[in-house]
Specification:
The chain has a single domain, classed as 3-Layer(aba) Sandwich (Endonuclease, Chain A), CATH 3.40.960.10. With about 170 residues, it is of the alpha+beta class. The termini are far apart. Strands 1-2-3-4 form a four-stranded mixed beta sheet, sandwiched between helices. It is elongated and about 90 Å long. About 40% of the residues lie in helices and about 10% in strands.
Length: about 170
Amino acid sequence: MDKLTPQQRHKAMASVHSKNTKPEMIVRKGLWKRGFRYRLNHKRLPGHPDLVLRKYRTCIFINGCYWHGHLVDSSTMESSECCKIPKTNREFWVAKIRRNKERDKEEQRKLAEMGWHCITVWECELKPSKREETLESLAFTLNHIWLQDHVAKSVPYPQLEEEDMQMPMAAEEK
């Protein structure tokens, strides 16, 4: 049984926001401090990623463990250590979390088809004990992506016709 009245429940649920959340602000400040520049909630990309780093062709989604079903098996929909599925109105919440997980997967598939890399940062990975490790790992991953995308192609250096001719060296006598 829900302990809140419908009006109290509505007010509590309406106070949950999708932008400028605490986990998002932690990631944004951590990336900015490390020299990464980004755009917020790009409207033209599927799923409106939380952060878009065009230089790295990377979209970052910062997901709340509860709303996106972190570590929840889609077949059984049993609670995980960071995502507790409510016992009241369970069918509704299971369906909602399952839809969210399917939508996330589809949006990331579309982004990958467009040539974007997708990174998901989970709320539980930003707890104070794991925060710096997560942000360092994120920075490492972004730098790795950039290096992979910008490695010089192994194409042989083209030779000019003049180089094929035998020319005397400057110090040689004729």
